[in-house]
């Protein structure tokens, strides 16, 4: 009976292949059958040749007759034709390619083949020819059948193949197809565990071996099979327990040594693939280190570097070495900020509450549990192949009720009436106003109280007496006895005064910083009308910081003039990141070459600077500065550690620090070693910013893009489970760049982006007030005081009425409002430069500016987070929380700027004067161009699977008009990068809350790149302050066009600008998880395909044992699973 079933299955198999409209080759088959069978086969061949199986019914009838005749032959005829049937099936699949295999799978051919294999295995001895042919066919079919692993396991085929392999280890002819099938079996994680228990791992190590020119194809398949088996943690532990790691390293060395012509790179890569999978577990990494694997792979990779075609070996070796590099703790006593600010009360929950709840003495840098290996249960899911390959984005809001504006006010009007005083323009009647001399009649704006401890700019520390650097300020107030006077930081020997003139050197100039001396400040008044060094110092006097900064940075004092030359996006040199990583690995291999000398440490607040005359000197003790520690690693290499945001233990991205004591022409390397984001624009052409004091004294006071060999990659420093929110094994990232200095005795500053301090804002606002013309209505209020005691400015800008007539006053009061805010995240300094461009345009004298003021009343909060800016935070305020996640329920004590800004908007909504436009200026660290995020019910629903009626989706598309206008007039703006989807993770942001709670349809976040542009006029260029300020001005122009376009008389003349419906439909978007809605303009992959960001293996240990189909690719969720590269 079994033989007859096999007969039927075999011919059914042939029919499966031919019934899918597949062309047969010539069927000159010798099955040893009688003439009637041959006659039917001839008819089938003629049908195939003449009609291409057009008459499928006739073909089926003929095949049925053949099957009947074969079944009547009995079991004794099976050996005569069954091998030939399988052999010809294999021939059909080989000639037909993937399409024929697909047809065979779809017709159930896999099950038939497995049944035939099981039946054949019951014969003794099994037919070697039949087994060879069956496994050859299965090797072709298996990769095309997603259920192949499950089918093989349920049919009992796994043991059949393993037993056959054990019996034929010396038979290469049969060994190869068996290994090919086992490779497919092992791609299923449950099968891999089962095969490992059956001894297959040990069998593989009997097959692979040292260098040999024989059976290389067989060895390659065996290594692939072993690699698939070792993806199972159980099998990896089995390999470690049996001491196979040193064996693999020895085999790899032998192949590396003997494969001098590099003809067997795939075999060498297969060995590395096995090591890569073994080292995904802690035991494997330990065994690798004990076997001196770091040195072996480092030496072999170094020898491969000159040969470009060996890059896959170098990349995989680098990945293994970095994964096995012992995890180190950050060189800090605590990951919490070195500064502390006591909060009025502690939040009930969240990371700040967790921070305050830690008992004294807890080591929050690293804890022992981070190194413990969790129990790793194997994934025994039968239907794991059914997992959706494209995960849905669960972050998109699907509750339609939350996508609609609230119908009831969130606060009673009586509570909001106190904010009426910030809207005097809505009731102003200008009675008694002198229109003949309007400027003299304007009431003085409300300003923040000045500190009684004034600020001076004393000399730099440690200068020779003959080099004076600072001048006393006029009108100083006396400092308190215990207060230290702020001073210019750094050491500099100025060579020029003004532009091109030698500065006189005064004999006997005082070195004492408290007395002060003369500093030649470049005359930039014509280039920087809003900058005044003396006024800046006056503004610093009333700025309060937690560390009580007593120094002023040169760039903030001198000012910044945008360079006239273009700064192109840096073209990445091939292999630079790999070189940097190998230099890091050398630290472990050659530890005696490492200095490990601390040269700057804010944790030692009494004397943070270590000056031995041989190392660079660092400083960050000034407004917006951020550098916690500097460690000299080699003579010209320094590891830098950033400070956490105050009342936080993370958010390391913003940096701003000073360097002095450099050698001219020396190749310095700086490594910021505690970055947290998994990707950065530093990998895509962005450079750091540098400000040279010598250049400034020479008449070129400017920040310039600089640095070579820039890259960003995961390092061997690990975050504790406390810092990672309970997750273990999370690694930090290194941002590294190289730099050569051009001037002796220079003082240079490095920054993440163009600094813009709180004191700079106050200076600019005061200068704008001084430049106000009589046509401008300008009022500056202090909205509130921050936790740190700094005022939060609120500006009101519009046009003065022409007279006190009722029509003029009515028109003045009823202008629509535009509400703008910026700098809620301190590290996004580009937002302040865009805001500066907006303010300068609004206060300008051009006809467009006057028309814009006549069209709107502008309410502007230019800096929502002054405390974070002052203290050098990247993301948070002094409360330790992201203020842009507090808009739903802000606390008046912990989030005063957000609470009162939201109250202003609630007041406007309550009096039926909600803004026409709300826009919050931000910076984006991982995308190029300038773009907007908005809110749309329709576009959000379209990205989900929820059903909604047309009534539910009724929505005015006017929210797209402003971005569309910007895309046509602003060179840096990209409409393709805009998104209007509402996500759950963003429901507490300003944009979503203002849209949902205040019903403002045009509620936006405008994101400006920190890097540059990849489209338009500025394509290929890094963005600068000139382009950012231009963007702020163009936003104003777009608002003016929006006003005109909403006028019915103008509508017909500008129909092309309002064609938003077609744009909406044509926009092709993709949604990725988590919390990221992006469009199809993501960064391209580099040529060198090595994932720099997620090869740690710590993360892998907490994942199920699902097979990985990519050798060198591990997912990076924060970078939207895009393939990153190492170049």
Can you give me a brief rundown of this structure?
With 1127 residues, the protein is α+β, with helices and mostly antiparallel strands. Helices cover 36% and strands 12% of the residues. It is built from 38 helices and 24 strands.
Descriptive overview:
With 1127 residues, this protein is α+β, with helices and mostly antiparallel strands. 36% of the residues lie in helices and 12% in strands. It contains 38 helices and 24 strands. The strands form 6 sheets. Strands 16-17-19-18-20-22-21 form a 7-stranded mixed beta sheet, with helices on both faces. A hairpin with a 5-residue loop joins strand 16 (776-785) and strand 17 (791-799). Helix 1 (2-18) runs antiparallel to helix 6, helix 6 (109-121) runs antiparallel to helix 7 (128-141) and helix 29 crosses helix 36. The radius of gyration is 36 Å and the shape is globular. 49% of the residues are buried. Residues 1-13, 15-34, 74-81, 368-392, 440-485, 490-518, 1050-1058 and 1060-1127 have low confidence and may be disordered.
Task: Write out key terms for the chains shown.
disordered N terminus, 36% helix, 6-stranded mixed β-sheet, globular, 24 strands, 7-stranded mixed β-sheet, alpha+beta, disordered C terminus, 1127 residues
